[in-house]
């Protein structure tokens, strides 16, 4: 697969795990510190569209998946990062694509992930007086 070959050539050993679920669905596990480099390359150099991000509180930590679509081929590539539940923090991708702005706000609000250098981490879903530190999608 040409897309994976390009990513392997560019990032070599920075791919922790490669998981091909089907011909049109691929997951790459990467370190949070490498997220910006991967996202920028996939979006700007490879021409993928940022579709959405999703987050979940797993037994191992806060997992965030960044989903990119290669519309001409129908391939969806997801970058998966795992953050420490006690201090979930990662660089914002808003400087690469503005479309990350609202979903990062939602993930911040619902899971407590701090997106460093985000231009405006405000409440979108919960009321402004929602108790600080109470994240509705966190495991109890």
Write the layout of secondary structure elements.
Blueprint: H1 2-11, E1 15-22, E2 25-30, H2 35-45, E3 49-58, E4 61-70, E5 75-83, E6 89-91, H3 100-111, E7 114-116
Parallel strand pairs: 2-5, 6-7
Antiparallel strand pairs: 1-2, 3-4, 4-5
What does this structure look like?
The chain is of the alpha/beta class and 140 residues long. The chain has a single domain, classed as Beta Polymerase, domain 2. Helices cover 24% and strands 35% of the residues. The chain is built from three helices and seven strands; from the N terminus they run H-E-E-H-E-E-E-E-H-E. The radius of gyration is 15 Å and the shape is globular. The termini are far apart. The mean pLDDT is 95.
């Amino acid at each position: 697969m040409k897309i994976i070959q390009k990513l392997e050539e560019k990032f070599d050993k920075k791919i922790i795990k490669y998981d091909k679920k089907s011909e049109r669905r691929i997951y790459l596990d990467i370190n949070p510190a490498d997220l910006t480099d991967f996202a920028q390359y996939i979006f700007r150099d490879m021409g993928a569209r940022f579709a959405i991000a999703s987050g979940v509180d797993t037994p191992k930590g806060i997992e965030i998946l960044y989903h990119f679509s290669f519309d001409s081929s129908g391939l969806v590539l997801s970058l998966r990062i795992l953050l420490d539940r006690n201090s979930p923090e990662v660089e914002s991708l808003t400087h690469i694509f503005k479309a990350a702005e609202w979903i990062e706000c939602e993930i911040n609000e619902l899971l407590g992930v701090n997106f460093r250098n985000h231009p405006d981490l405000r409440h979108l879903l919960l009321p402004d007086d929602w108790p600080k530190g109470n994240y509705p999608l966190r495991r109890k």
